Amino acid sequence: MSHSKSKIWVHAVISTKGRQPLIQPIIRPTVHSELRNQLIAMNCCVDCIGGVADHVHLLFLLNPQKSIADVVKQIKGGSSHAFNQTNLTAAHFAWQIGYGAFSVSESHVKRVRAYILSQKEHHRNVTFMDEYHRFMIHYGLPDDAIG
């Protein structure tokens, strides 16, 4: 095989600092657009972005030259810098330090996409913390959330 091939779907979840409801509906398109731009700048192919006031879900193909940690660091840092430079929110905008990143098999991309794009409806009945706990159980990870 003369060329390297890679196709790794990532479902990432990032939360606002302290889970503050900073991403109000009026600015949500701007937030999602900036996150998309940051991912594109990292040469990641973006499938979809969705979320609510305190967190965002992203589905993208990982650039094989980058680590997930590098990509998330860049999109969080670059976007929060852009938001604060333009005073997008009245309060200082910041993302939570941690993040979630989960691999998605090709056969589940459609289902994950539908889930991400239906965040508004989903969170009418499920809190972010309940969602977080479910992810930890589903992926067999320690549930170390505070509050």
Automatic annotation (TrEMBL):
Residue ranges of every copy of the Transposase IS200-like domain listed in the record: 5-119
Listed GO biological process terms: DNA transposition
Molecular function, one GO term: DNA binding
SMART domains registered for this protein in UniProt: Y1_Tnp
A matching Pfam family: Y1_Tnp
Name of the protein described by the UniProt record: Transposase
